């Protein structure tokens, strides 16, 4: 029995309808931006394996940090105990986040970081004796697959089986060009009419919605309105964090400071699952009490895993090396050059670039579903040509590791161009 056959026998894959999906490709090796399957075929990982590998696969610097930690202290419970890697990582993250961030809460992944933030927002007001049970989120948002994160998400086919089981979430339009005022006015109306605890958002880029982008000035206005009405703000930087937008965090483009940050994905350079939620001192103080019932009763077995913390510290050291910062700027330049070349193609509707993120909207006559025929044809074409990209409906996007070289980017651009000619 082959590995692929055994996989079909034993494994249930994410976001997969196994009756109709093709068999998963068995990957046996990764190095840099490249992956190899069991037959020796080479692929360029153009999306950093769901946005988590900024320094490529099998990065030796991160691997050495993990090995060193494993031979010292692989794990210890974080309830009643602590350790140096968690302390150093919290200190480092707080030095990078806006100055109002004072406390770090560790969890396992992007969904759980959002879960912690939403639960904390709701309990913060509960602890004060205030009834605030509503959350505001953008239309077509995606914040994860745990229950509160799903509730905040707005992509219906992810959540339609669970309607009626969620916390109350109110929607506002994304403040894209021309929709800023509608977004602002809807936010104001919701805050006036309902008992709102928090506003959660993906800053500047909605990843799963198809790399939808909007300007920082619009988000600043929304956050300012929330602050004026004591509504907490949650920046979901799970995708955008750690250099993706050209700055360390997307919120570094803002003049306002959110109350909470959710971080994961690139945090550990694609090695060990880990996430953090950061908080202001005011939020932490809302749980600081003689009454044990006002504590935040949330935790994970592998909270602040020392090995994951070591990987994150190594990842952050790499991020701020001059070579990596130069690469981020160079990838952005290459994306913008390609955008200029491709924007007038008859099959291209729009092109968007921010930092290392490139998104191209294919012109279509009828609305394309998230996993529709066009998307599947594009995905298959990219795989056949040795490039790993996962289009979102009619949106083709690139979000590469920061170590990608110019000739590898050019191959990705060439494959996209060829797809426009032969698939559409």
Automatic annotation (TrEMBL):
Entry keyword Hydrolase: no
Keyword Glycoprotein belongs to the record: no
GO-annotated cellular components: cytoplasm
A Pfam family matched in the record: Aminotran_3
Top EC class for this record: transferase
Swiss-Prot/TrEMBL catalytic activity: (8S)-8-amino-7-oxononanoate + S-adenosyl-L-methionine = S-adenosyl-4-methylsulfanyl-2-oxobutanoate + (7R,8S)-7,8-diammoniononanoate
Cofactor(s) listed in the protein's UniProt record: pyridoxal 5'-phosphate
Entry superkingdom: Bacteria
SUPFAM superfamilies named among the record's database cross-references: PLP-dependent transferases
Binding site for substrate: 50, 265, 299, 390
Protein localization: Cytoplasm
EC number(s) on file: 2.6.1.62
Binding site for pyridoxal 5'-phosphate: 110-111, 236, 300-301
Annotated keywords: Aminotransferase, Biotin biosynthesis, Cytoplasm, Pyridoxal phosphate, S-adenosyl-L-methionine, Transferase
InterPro entries assigned: Aminotrans_3 (IPR005814), BioA (IPR005815), PyrdxlP-dep_Trfase (IPR015424), PyrdxlP-dep_Trfase_major (IPR015421), PyrdxlP-dep_Trfase_small (IPR015422)
Pathway membership, UniProt: Cofactor biosynthesis; biotin biosynthesis; 7,8-diaminononanoate from 8-amino-7-oxononanoate (SAM route): step 1/1
GO molecular function annotation: 2 iron, 2 sulfur cluster binding; adenosylmethionine-8-amino-7-oxononanoate transaminase activity; dethiobiotin synthase activity; pyridoxal phosphate binding
Cross-referenced CDD domains: OAT_like
Function of the molecule: Catalyzes the transfer of the alpha-amino group from S-adenosyl-L-methionine (SAM) to 7-keto-8-aminopelargonic acid (KAPA) to form 7,8-diaminopelargonic acid (DAPA). It is the only aminotransferase known to utilize SAM as an amino donor.
PANTHER family: ADENOSYLMETHIONINE-8-AMINO-7-OXONONANOATE AMINOTRANSFERASE
The protein's name in its UniProt record: Adenosylmethionine-8-amino-7-oxononanoate aminotransferase
Gene behind the chain: bioA
């Amino acid at each position: 029995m082959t590995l692929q056959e055994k996989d079909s026998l034993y494994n249930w894959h994410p976001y997969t309808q196994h009756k109709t999906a093709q068999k998963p490709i068995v990957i046996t090796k990764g190095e840099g931006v490249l992956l190899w399957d069991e037959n020796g075929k080479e692929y360029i990982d153009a999306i950093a394996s769901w946005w988590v590998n900024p320094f490529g696969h099998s990065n030796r610097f991160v691997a050495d940090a993990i090995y060193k930690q494993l031979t010292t202290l692989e794990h210890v419970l974080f309830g009643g105990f602590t350790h140096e890697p968690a302390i150093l990582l919290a200190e480092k993250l707080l030095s990078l986040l806006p100055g109002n961030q004072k406390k770090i809460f560790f969890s396992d992944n992007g969904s759980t970081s959002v879960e912690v933030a939403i639960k904390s927002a709701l309990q913060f007001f509960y602890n004060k004796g205030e009834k605030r049970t509503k959350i505001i989120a953008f239309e077509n948002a995606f914040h994860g697959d745990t229950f509160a994160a799903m509730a905040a998400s707005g992509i219906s086919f992810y959540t339609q089986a669970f309607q009626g089981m969620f916390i109350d979430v109110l929607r506002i339009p994304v403040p894209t060009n021309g929709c800023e005022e509608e977004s602002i006015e809807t936010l104001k109306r919701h805050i006036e009419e309902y008992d709102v605890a928090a506003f959660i958002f993906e800053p500047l880029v909605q990843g799963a919605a198809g790399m939808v982008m909007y300007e920082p000035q619009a988000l600043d206005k929304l956050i300012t309105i929330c602050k004026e009405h004591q509504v907490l703000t949650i920046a979901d930087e799970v995708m955008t964090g750690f250099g993706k937008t050209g700055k360390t965090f997307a919120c570094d483009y803002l003049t306002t400071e959110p109350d909470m940050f959710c971080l994961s994905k690139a945090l550990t350079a694609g090695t060990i699952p880990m996430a953090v939620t950061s908080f202001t001192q005011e939020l932490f103080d809302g749980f600081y009490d003689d009454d044990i019932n006002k504590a935040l009763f949330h935790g994970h077995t592998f909270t602040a895993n020392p090995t994951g913390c070591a990987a994150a510290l190594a990842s952050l050291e790499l991020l701020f090396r001059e070579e990596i910062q130069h690469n981020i700027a160079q990838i952005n330049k290459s994306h913008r050059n390609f955008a200029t070349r491709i924007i007038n193609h008859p099959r291209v509707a729009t092109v968007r670039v921010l930092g290392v993120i490139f998104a191209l909207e294919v012109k279509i006559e009828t609305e394309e579903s998230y996993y529709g025929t066009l998307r599947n044809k594009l995905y298959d074409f990219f795989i056949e040509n040795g490039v790993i990209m996962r289009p979102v409906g009619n949106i083709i996007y690139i979000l590469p590791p920061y170590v990608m070289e110019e000739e590898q980017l050019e191959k990705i651009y060439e494959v996209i161009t060829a797809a426009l000619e032969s698939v559409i």
